[in-house]
Structures are given as C-alpha cells and as structure tokens.
Write a structure and sequence with these properties.
Elements (H helix, E strand, L loop, with lengths): L2 H14 L11 E4 L15 E8 L2 E9 L2 E4 L8 E5 L3 E8 L4 E5 L11 E3 L4 E8 L4 E6 L12 E7 L2 H21 L6 E2 L2 E2 L3 E3 L6 H10 L3 H22 L8 H21 L2 H5 L4 H8 L26 H12 L1 H4 L3 H21 L4 H6 L1 H9 L5 E5 L2 H6 L4 H4 L27 H5 L5 E6 L5 H7 L4 H22 L3 H8 L18 H37 L5 H9 L3 H19 L1 H8 L23 H28 L2 H27 L1
Length: 675
C-alpha cells in the first residue's frame, strides 16, 4: 500500500472518530408565566437566550448579556444561536402554539430520564449550560407537536467550529490525495483496489451451494414478496384510518424511516435487492402468470400483450415522478393519508400495466423508486452476471430470455448473458433458474466497476444524466431542509398546513392562498436547482475540462459521460441521510410495529421512548461518508475519462477540473451538516 493511500485512509478514519462526548447535567424548571423578557434572577456571567418554540421550528427573540438586551424584530428572529466555547447560557423558552419539547444534542440528558416540556403560556428556564465543546449542535423538539415534529430543529454553533473547519479542510485534502494517487495513472482501479477482481458468491465454499439452492428455488420470489405485501396492506390501512400524526403512524414510521433508510444501504451492498422483494407489481405478475410461483407453459397468460412504447423505454418518467414526489415530500413523509394514497396508486398502476403491457414495464420505466434504485445500484458491490459471456453467445436457445421449465426468462426484457450494468436488472433470478448451462451467478466486486464502460457507451442518455443531477442535489437539499434550522423552507414545502391527516380528516390539508403561493416558490426552487442550476454548473465544468484536456470529444459527450461519475457520490450522500434518519428516529418504526394504527396499543410490549443515538456525532459521521463518496467519484471520473480519451494525461487534466466541482460540493455538504 502506497504512502498516499495510507494517508487517505488515515484521514478518513480519523475524521470518523470525532465526536465522542460525555453529556453534562442540565436542569430545567418552570418560572413566571408573565414578563418573558423580564428576568429578575441573577445568572452571573451567563447569557440569557429568549427562545420561541412554534410549529415547526425555534427562533431567538432576544439575547441578554449582563445589562444589555438585544431584541430581534418580528420576522427577522434568527434560528441559529452563535456562542463561544466556554460560554454559559440560560434558555428561557416559551411556546407560541402547542406543547413542545426541548433537547440539545450532546448536552441534554436522555429524554427518557428527563423530558423538558414547554407548555403554552408557561416559561421554562433551562440551564445554565456551559458549552465547553466547539462544533454544531441541534436543538430538537422532544414532544410530538404535529406532522413536522421530527424535523423541528434549531442550530447552536459553538465557535471556533473546529469540526467544520477540519472537515472542510479534510474535503480539500481528500481531493488532493485522490488526485495525487491518480497522477500515477492507475488503470481500472478504485482507490488502489482492482476493478477486475470479483467474487463468485455461488462458488464460495460453504455458503455458495446453499445460496444457489435458495435463489433457484421456485418459491423464493413468492416467499420474499408476500411479507412485504402484507406490510404494504398495513401501510395503506394505517394511512387511511390510523393516527393522523405521522411519527405515530405505521405508514410513515415504517416506510419513510425504516424502509427508506434500508433501501439506501441495500443499494450499496445489495444492488436492486429491493426490486427482488418489492410487492408493487406482484399482484399483476401473479394474475398474468396465473400462478403464485410455479412455472407453466400450457395455459395462456392472462394479459392484453400490448407493446410498450419505445419512447418510454428509459427512466425519464421515473426520474420526473421521483422529482414530483420530492415536491410534496413534506406532506408525503408526514401525512399518513398521502402515503396511503400513493401506495394505492402505485400498486394499482403496477397491477394494471403488468396485465396490459407485460412484463415489468412499470418497474423499468415508471416506478420512481425503481428508477433511482436502478440508477444508483451501478455503484453497488453486488451484481447478477454471467460467468462467461462467450458461453452465452454460443448458446442458441437463450432460455434466459425465452424461459424454460424452470424459469420464465427475464421479465425486464434484458439479455442476461450480455448485460453488464445494474440499471434495469431487477434481480428476480429468473435467469439463474432458467439457464441450463449454470452460467449465471451472483458476484461481489468493487464499487464503480461498471461505470467507465457504461459512461463511454452511453449516447444521448440524458435521462440517466438528469437522474444523477436530481439525486445528487436532492440528497444535499433534503438534509438541509429536514435537519436544518430554516423553518421557512419547511413551511413553504408544507404549504403552511399544521395538521396531520388520515382519510377522515383529509380536508384539513386544504392550504390557503399564501400556502399555495409559497409551495410554488418551493417547487421552483427544488426543481430549478435539480433540473437547471446544477446541470448548468456541471456542463460548464465539463466544457472547461474539455478545454484543459484538449480533448477532441464534444462537450455534450463529456458532460453525459462524467455524469456517471457522480453515482458513488450520490450513494454515499444518501447513505449519510439514511444514517441521520435511523440514529435520530430509530424508535418510531419499532414502536409502530407494536402500535400500527397509532391508537395507543402496545401489542408487542415495547417500552422504547424517543432517544437519539449519539446525535452530536452525526455531523462528523455524515461528513466522512460524503468525503469518501467524493473520493470515489473523482476516481470514477478519471476511469471514465481514461476509457474515453485513451490517454492518461488528458484524462488526468479533465479529472482535475471536475475534482474541483466535487470538492466544492463536499464543502457545501459539510457546511450543511457541520457548519
């Protein structure tokens, strides 16, 4: 291992080690209900921060230091408290509307032991708290107060913010070290690891034969789908008749916390494995085949057999539907009825299209989850591939396409023996069942193995390029919106509606004129950045890289090819988002299984309470994941350029230009989570 590689690994591991802190004791008590800004107590040298809690955020009304009182005008109250290391702070908190809670990452005791409750009309005094560690710490609401309660946060920045400075510098250092490694001209390698090395899982001694037997078992697909179908049935019922508050409803807690987070990890470690177990098209598939899992070729399939339009044989629809879902994401992940309706629509469309336009055209071209999972899974370490493409080419029967007594053939309309990317392989393992030559298998390989040849052979794949831009920008934007202190952004996307809703109370979601206007501002901002602003910046850097590299290829081709280099970056940013969700909200999906409708049941006898797992470490863990993704993305860009230009020098110069954009993006990400 080279010294540069050792340094890179050391820097990443060192940064991931930041953030292990002990929690100090915090006291809280209710004081006078009147004269909020008139505190007669002597707090010594402590600052007094007058804090307002409201649906759904915190804002600072005034700060008192000694005899000086600074009152912020209505509408310009900051949501970020800036203090110096060593400052002592007393918080005087009042609720503007409903009952809220108060919790500071790394400083408040466990809410299970001491929950600080802010009731309307009562002032709660917390502290004094000595901020003896620099960094960024979140204020969180610890009492369910409405649909956006999980995302009701404020920021405390303790200066000097060495964590942010370190990770911003670490982003630059990791970029420099990666370029220094690439300067040597490694061929077909990713951060020192060969992309040629693969592990054939079905030939691994011990587990290989067992795994092969499972995947070739005719009932495997049914066995992994039906539990998901039952869960989605509960999701729909809970969405329609369960508790209207999202974090107390199965449809929100299980889908948008547990499922959403696990899918991001699946993409990295198991490719499109969610498509293996996804129940959305299952009903249509079972009806069309007239079988739950067996194979038959005597009875005619129950389908219309209509041909899928060639113009839709891409991921444009899926990408735009994913973006459309993002435009209503504050409602989608907090209002049970919206999630219930979404899954009724998806299951209905998936079922109908399998019968009218078989086989899995819904999964291939329409499903928004399938689009981004397929796109991102090209950075996965997992793949379904042929062992020897030469054997497949010589074999004329092509049972992997046409089917055999053991399998139906590929329902995704792929030639399994020739495909070399994960984009449209749903990992149903029909090819593994139907191949008579035992030439299909499951492989583990290094991240980004397929990206270079995918990028070079792709022509006019603007759909896949724009999916990269949508996923990349939304990954950073989601963290800013849901874990940032800017309540006005949440309110724009939320249309100013402070109510949860199930089917009985769906009328509460009707927004006012101001809410609709603000939503259009939100939609223009989200769509504008994803569809126009970042792609334009990326195109500009692609043009500069062409000039610097003195490349003969046109800018459009470089632009499209380099967009594939973003995929590892995207995967790690979304894994970071998943980590943040799980560590802060882990209790909600667990308790949802015990109380799926949010009616106060406890079927499983759980006694868990909301208690984030080491949340003060999140800025450092998330930053480290993003920096690792950045390094992989720079290396992927070099591999793409090397494949495209067939020259190390030109590839390196072009990569150096794009690396600047990736480093700046990492610094922006670090600023969002730690700055």
């Amino acid at each position: 291992m080279s010294e540069i590689r050792r340094m890179l690994i050391f820097v990443i591991l060192l940064m991931m080690g930041f953030g292990s802190f002990l929690l100090p004791s915090v006291s809280a008590h209710v004081v006078s209900e009147k004269d909020w800004l008139n505190d007669p107590h002597d707090h010594g040298d402590a600052k007094i921060v007058y804090l307002k809690a409201y649906q759904f955020g915190f804002s600072i009304k005034a700060i008192q230091e000694g005899s000086q009182l600074e009152v912020f005008p209505e509408g310009s109250e900051p949501s970020i408290l800036k203090v110096d290391k060593g400052d002592r702070v007393v918080f005087r908190i009042i609720s503007e509307d409903v009952t809220h809670g108060f919790y500071i990452d790394g400083y408040s005791p466990s809410p299970v032991d001491q929950k600080i409750v802010i009731q309307p009309g009562k002032i709660v005094e917390v502290g004094p708290i000595t901020f003896d560690r620099s960094g960024k710490f979140k204020i969180r609401c610890s009492v369910t107060c409405g649909p956006l309660h999980p995302f009701m946060v404020g920021d405390i920045r303790v200066n000097p913010n060495f964590g942010y400075y370190s990770y911003a510098a670490g982003s630059l250092l990791a970029g420099i070290l990666t370029l220094a490694y690439l300067r040597r001209g490694p061929v077909n390698r990713m951060l020192g690891i060969s992309l040629e090395k693969e592990v054939d899982l079905l030939r691994v001694r011990g587990i290989g034969p067992i795994l092969k037997r499972i995947l070739q078992w005719r009932g495997f697909h049914f066995a992994v789908i039906w539990p998901g179908l039952l869960i989605f049935a509960v999701v729909i019922v809970a969405g329609f008749v369960g508790n209207p508050v999202g974090n107390k409803n199965f449809s929100i807690a299980v889908v948008w916390i547990l499922w959403f987070a696990l899918v991001e990890f699946m993409i990295l470690f198991a490719g499109r494995s969610w498509c293996t177990v996804c129940p959305l098209p299952a009903l249509g598939e079972w009806i069309a085949r007239r079988r739950l899992y067996g194979v038959h070729r005597i009875r005619k399939w129950f389908t219309f057999g209509l041909k899928w339009p060639g113009s839709l044989n891409n991921m444009w629809l899926g990408s735009l539907l994913f973006l459309t879902m993002s435009l209503i994401i504050p409602w989608l992940v907090t209002r049970p009825v919206v999630s219930g309706l979404l899954f009724v629509i998806l299951i209905s469309v998936g079922t109908i299209l399998y019968i009218t336009h078989p086989p899995r055209n819904f999964c291939r071209s329409i499903c928004p989850a399938g689009a981004y999972i397929g796109h991102d899974s090209n950075a996965s370490i997992y793949s379904v591939r042929s062992r020897d493409k030469g054997i497949c080419d010589l074999h004329k029967a092509k049972e992997c396409i046409r089917g055999s007594p053991e399998g139906y053939g590929c329902p995704w309309r792929l030639y399994p023996g020739g495909h070399d990317e994960n984009t449209y392989c749903g990992q149903c393992y029909e090819c593994l069942k139907s191949c008579p030559l035992d030439n299909m298998t499951v492989k583990i390989r290094m991240i980004g193995k397929d990206l270079a040849h995918m990028a070079v052979k792709a022509k006019n794949r603007f759909d896949e390029a724009w999916m990269s831009f949508i996923r990349f920008t939304l990954g950073i934007f989601y963290i800013l919106v849901f874990f940032g202190p800017y309540a006005w952004i949440k309110d724009w996307g939320n249309m100013g509606v402070n109510f949860g809703a199930n089917l009985a109370s769906i009328g509460l979601l009707v927004p006012g004129i101001e809410g609709v206007v603000n939503w259009f501002r939100w939609a223009i901002m989200v769509a504008g950045v994803s569809l126009v602003v970042y792609p334009a910046i990326f195109y500009a850097f692609s043009w500069i890289s062409k000039k610097v590299a003195k490349a003969e290829e046109d800018t459009k081709r470089i632009f499209l090819a380099f967009s594939y280099g973003l995929i590892p970056y995207i995967v790690f940013i979304w894994v970071a988002f998943a980590v943040a969700i799980l560590l802060v909200f882990w209790v909600y999906p667990i308790t949802a299984f015990s109380d799926p409708l949010g009616w106060g049941w406890n079927l499983l006898g759980f006694k868990f309470k909301w208690d984030p797992i080491h949340p003060q470490s999140l800025p450092y863990v998330l930053s480290s994941l993003a920096i690792l993704g950045m390094a992989l993305s720079i290396n992927s860009t070099y591999n793409i350029a090397r494949e495209m230009f067939k020259d190390h020098s030109r590839a390196y110069r072009a990569t150096s230009v794009m690396a600047l954009l990736h480093v700046v993006s990492a610094i922006v990400f670090v600023w969002v989570v730690a700055g």
